[in-house]
Amino acid sequence: MASPSLVASRALWARLGGLDPRYPVSFLITLILVLGEARYGILGGYDRLATALGVCVATELALSWWLRGGFANVASAYITGISLALLIKPRADLLWPFALGGFLAIASKYVLQYRGRHLWNPSNFAISLLVVAAPASVAILSHQWGNDLATNAVIWCFGLLIAARVGMLHVTLTYVACFVALALARSGIVGGPLLAEIAPLTGPMYQLFIFFMITDPKTTVSTVRGRVIVAAAVAVAETAIRLAGDYHVAVLRPLYPAPPILALAIVGPLAKALDLYREARSGRSS
Amino acid sequence: MVHAVTSLFQRRVALGASFLAAIALVIILNRRAPGAGDSRVAVQFHLSNIAAEAGIDFVHHGPTLDAKLDNIAPLVAALGASVSVTDVNNDGWPDLYFTNSRFGTGNALYLNRGDGSFVDIARDAGVADVNRPGEGVSMGAVWGDFDNDGLEDLLVYKWGYLQLFKNMGDLHFADVTEAAGLRHWMNSNGAVWIDYDRDGLLDLYVTGYFRSDIDLWHLKTTRIMENSFEFATNGGKNRLFHNLGNGRFEDVTDRMGVGSTRWTLAVAAADFNGDGWPDLFLANDYGPEELYVNDHGRRFVLSRVGLESDSKSGMSATLGDVLNRGRLDAFVTNISVRGYLFQGNNLRLNFLPELGRFQQGAEGVITDAGWAWGAQLGDLDNDGRNELFIVNGYVSADRDRSYWYAMSKIAGANGNVFEDARSWPAIGTASLSGYERSRVLVNRGLAGWTDVAAAVGVSDEYDGRAVALVDLFNRGVLDVVIANQNQPALIYKNTVVPANHWIAFKLVGTRSNRSAIGAEVTIEAGGTRQLKVVDGGSGFASQNDRRLHFGLGSAGRVDRAVIRWPSGTLQTLEHPTVDRLHGITEPGR
């Protein structure tokens, strides 16, 4: 006979499964925020969080009312706001990247659409744009969070748990498996230490990437097989960027600070558009 | 109402336009980020490199380390260029000591002839040949009269054994390290003379970078690097040596509680909280700065003063009264590089007496000086406010290849990975924040700072490490001396508009240490106050002229100068004459 705690855990697990995926994801990103801020002061100022969150939520409410006549659920804007606050690391005294980034992230959902669906994960779009268009002002999260194993472990555990519950674990695992395999390949090609190629995976930028961006249900394709292929394609595109970085290809220099995020920004929308196109075509034929 | 008067299409068009406008705004605001120098401010001084004319031909050579570090050798061996100012023969003309860092190369002691030229006497003086296998290589030096005999002695800190040289008075030095009890192997990049117990004898605080059990030429392990880029505590232990007064020093690190292992790169000592006892301010690489508050010479207390959570890559501990409040603030350099990292430099405005903490005062152009190293605050235009001179650049090699991307692979990793030097990607011929231009920031008070480097003639792109300010030619202006890594030293002779007045003080301690290190002078002139402290080592790997130089602007009169000697004695000078150097000896009891 199962213990009461086990029964309770199972009940909670089952309830989580019925939830809108945005809520457990919101919980996870809040957990990361609280843990990181308490231990390492990762935000660099609460004004950054307030700006990013405030602009994201306000933009979501304003645009949903303006264009759709009703207020949208702000859980997605909340996740985007916190993601921006965690991932963007601009010059110390700048707040505009959080304000403009927040606006662009949410507005992209309403502007950059194909067949009524948005193509980019909102924070992925805003961060990619800021990194490429504003390199003198904005950097991306690199070595924050103390390079600490314990913090990493907590986030990985919760992240995997929640990815499983919202049905996106296959995306996370596919990407991680591909990243490791391609790291091996890169190490062979470049001739550098294997650990250096695998190392990024243990960093905070990747945790946010694999649990919040690449798994975004709204911007992933509609089939499990498709999502697996897209995750692998993102890893391949990232590898191409990384190899270009290793060989100092000057023209791609703006992409080097954030290879996975920019790879997703390139591959993700193409895949989503193709998926929507195929869906529409199969709908017509049926 | 809005929905009633606009169609969905119109609203979508409006949103699209706003979206594009926001993107355009990102690009416009990015272009306004601090970058190129600004010459809109009328400058009142000009700097010219006269090293060659002055006979200073010093070129630094970096260390060659154990082959196990070959993959990142340019990065690890990128330290060691330093400069410190002294008057080695008490002739009233400041002399310069530069360190070298390769086995077989000599340090240089440039004696100021007083006619605009210098001659290197280091070899004859016995302070050149210190970079030898088994002994280590120089990383910097600080001057202080540890035995109060009226002659400046020399402490060379190294990746290797410390060396203390006693000035014998005839332009010769004797190595007294062993007799002083200072023959300790430390991988040090900073030191400061400080009379922490105010007994009139200079004590010595030496910082550790790599752990002291590491011999960088005979590595037993490659796990020698930091274990976190933010909160590393596996660096070398800093040590405090108490001067016993009989030529010997005693290690009191643990008893005094100052054995930080935070990869300290720079240290400065001053009384930040105004209690009369000199405190220790540490700029730590891979970690937050630290302030050890001196508890009446009995112990130091690592204090929570607003530095603890702001973890960066501190490289210079620079002191100065930034806003003419009669208070010593601290400036700490850090790393900024496009796209990868904006740590921002820290300007720690001192509010310890009122609020018990520092407040961040860095905004705008002062925050970003690239990969910044040494910095000094000094009044370069004699207008009554301190300018800021910052040198920068880490490894200048192939201009078309940058190591930043490769380093970013491991920068976010778990600390266990990059603690091992073997895990680092090979740097090869790549640069790392190379070819950066120095910054010369004019102080506009509460209006902020303006970079005038190009306008005042500073355009070099050397890998600057140490900078020291000194009135080299006794003209009443501060000149700038720079030690560059693997490159020639620079002597920027300063030309200032003659309309501005100045005053300077040379202090000699009697009850206090004879070098008067730690003495503070506050002047009141033209309705403002300015405070300066006699320097026992500050910035990065540097030591300024210990004569204190104040610009006065148009004020042709100083109301008073108040000297607070390290012994606690207060001395007031009413209306000291301007435009001259005042030699002041500490009054007796």
Span between termini of chain B = 85 Å
How many helices of chain A in DSSP terms? 12
Largest sheet of chain B, if any? 5 strands, mixed
Please give the radius of gyration of chain A in angstroms.
19 Å
Number of strands of chain A: 4
Structural class label of chain B: mainly beta
Q: Any overview of this molecule?
A:
The complex is a heterodimer of chains A (286) and B (589). In chain A, α3 (46-68) packs antiparallel against α4, α4 packs across α5 (96-111) and α8 runs parallel beside α11. Chain A contains twelve helices and four strands. Chain A is 71% helix and 3% strand. The longest helix of chain A has 27 residues, at 259-285. In chain A, a hairpin with a 2-residue loop joins β2 and β3. A two-stranded antiparallel ribbon of chain A has the order 1-4. Chain A has 286 residues and is mainly alpha-helical. Chain A has two domains: 12-140, no CATH class; 167-285, no CATH class. With 589 residues, chain B is mostly beta strands. In chain B, strands 5-4-3-2-37 form a five-stranded mixed beta sheet. In chain B, strands 6, 7, 8, 9 and 10 form a five-stranded antiparallel beta sheet that branches. A four-stranded antiparallel beta sheet of chain B has the order 1-33-32-31. The termini of chain B are far apart. The chains are: A mainly alpha (286), B mainly beta (589). At the A-B interface, α3, α5, α6, β4 and α9 of A face α2, β21, β22, β27 and α9 of B.
